[in-house]
Amino acid sequence: MSYSKEIYKEICLVFARLGLFAFGGPAAHIAMMEDELVTKRKWLTKADFMDLLGFTNLIPGPNSTELAIALGYKRRGKIGLFLAGICFILPAMTIVLLLAMFYKQYGEVPLIEAIFAGIKPVILAVIIQALFRLGQTTIQDVRSLLLFLAAWLLSLFGIGEITVLLLAGLAMLLMQQLSKWRTRHLAVEPMSLTLVFLTFLKIGSVLYGSGYVLLAFLQAEFIERYAALTSTQLLDAVAIGQFTPGPVFTTATFVGYLIQGVPGALLATVGIFLPSFLLILLLHPLFNKLRASKIFAGILDGITVASLALMASVSWQLGLATFVSWVSVILFGISLIALTRFKLNSSYLIIMGGCIGWLLTV
Fold it and tell me: Which residue has the higher pLDDT, 211 or 313?
């Protein structure tokens, strides 16, 4: 019993810290989870980590949050599932709620962008490090390398994530079968609390993809359908979700607060994340059984390669947005060396990057 309590405590501390320092979007979150749980704590192997990543890419909802939930499940069952997910979401939700209060009171967003300008090079270094490590496990032959390059190029040309994942899965299955048949938007009329909850529940149940896809869903629901937000408010909400640590879907917390205050923020957050908990809870046991199937295993192998390619695509796009000054290039170089050679904790580097970004604006 004491041993179980220690494991539960470890799960809470690990995912709370990740939720507090995981800036940069899903690719960065995934990279930090890999560094913490695979490389440092040895909770699971790289292959198992990539399997879970492939699995969470197949279901709707916020991928990195679902990965955190799945990792908690793998570590300590159903209790671990809820502890990991809640602890990963809570720090981000709290920060976004405080910023929403400030925004509604003063009508502006703090100097988050300046701070984030210092953080982005660090995040890029974290992602690049994870890509190399995971690539050693995922890309082991010419076939998987070619599939990785094809998926990366498709992503760069704007092909949807799910399409890339499924095409890669089917392509890998086909290649394997051919070889041996062997082994992926103020309110005009405020929405009611119930409607806020149900709207976000719907979004969380059907949304695939990035923050840009989330923006489209929020515009359709809260501007076009219910006229509950202005376009400026919606863009600010998405910006807050992108620039704060933890899940990008905490944009829901900001939107919920603008519409119905703190109760709206809490219900919006629960609504958008609840499907992720339920999907992992219900589908993870089935996933374990399907992994033993040679057909499903082949598809999953292709999906894991495509998942890595999507991370590489995000890295490329983040790099184009990051290297805007000599300071960002130096920060990236220092961070990459500190991570790979000196094994420095990425959280310290993120704090350093944020402080430098802030200092450059004062």
Answer: 313
